[in-house]
Amino acid sequence: MPAKPLVIALPKGRISQEVAPLLKRVGIVPEQAFFDDEARQLQFACEGGDVALIRVRSFDVATFVAFGAAHMGVCGSDVLAEFDYPDIYAPLDLDIGHCRLSLAQPEQMAPADDMARASHVRVATKYPNVTRQYFAEKGIQAECIKLSGAIELAPALGLAGRIVDLVSSGSTLRANGLVEAQTIMKVSSRLIVGRTAFKTRSLEVSGWIERFREAVHAG
Ligand code: PRP
Fold it and tell me: Do the Cβ atoms of 196 and 85 come closer than 8 Å?
């Protein structure tokens, strides 16, 4: 029996609602504070003591796991694409957190602004690497303005003509006078494992991957 629990990093925010039923099916029962939105606690013990949960920003899940600070995590495929960490394995699509990463622009942007004729665009985004690569494949150089949130504000205030951001219902785009120009990638949440955890705690890790796999199929 290992001395320390296996640490699983979970993302904050709207994905939490989809993660909770999955944990239940897997048989992970966190302490009550985990379900309390007012709680400031970031680390949670679980029944049985073999697993502990931490709650961090979605981008930071990958960082905690890549550096071995957490053994496993739940991480969007958008984040994995942006960072492309070699030390992270993503063995399982959890079939939650479905949304898409899209290029969006003001609805009144003239067709003359068609990208086919552009050699350079300015884009506000949390995803500069994915964005640069997406435009590079079209032979366009993307100048990315990195933001951490409220990306949809950028075109109206002249920070950038276009944005690349997550779209789920599309209501944030609509509320800010933007339309989707193109889907760059479909996104869902993945179970991720750090390379070190895979080597040093392989039996436990494989056991949890199997339990998550069964829980996804039972969902
Ligand atoms: C995400 C994303 C968009 C919004 C899209 O932000 O960055 O702003 O959701 O969802 P919709 O299409 O259903 O409107 P989130 O609310 O997760 O907060 P964040 O800006 O902190 O990432």
Answer: no
The string of pLDDT tens digits covering residues 34-52 is 998 888 999 999 999 999 9
Question: 115 lies in a domain?
Answer: yes
Cα–Cα distance measured from residue 146 to residue 59, given in angstroms and rounded to the nearest whole number: 14
pLDDT at 108: 86
- Ligand 1, atom 18, lies closest to the CA of 149
Residues in contact with 174: Cβ distance below 8 Å, sequence separation at least 6, in sequence order: none
CA distance 144 to 161: 11
0.90 cut: is pTM over it? Answer: yes
- Same domain, yes or no: 149 and 203: no
- Report percent pLDDT > 90 for the chain: 89
| Rounded Cα gap, residues 190 and 22, in angstroms | 12
- In short, whether 166's Cβ falls inside 6 Å of ligand 1 is yes
Tell how far the Cα of 15 is from the centroid of ligand 1, in angstroms. 11
58 & 104 share domain: no
Segments forming the whole domain that contains residue 119: 99-186
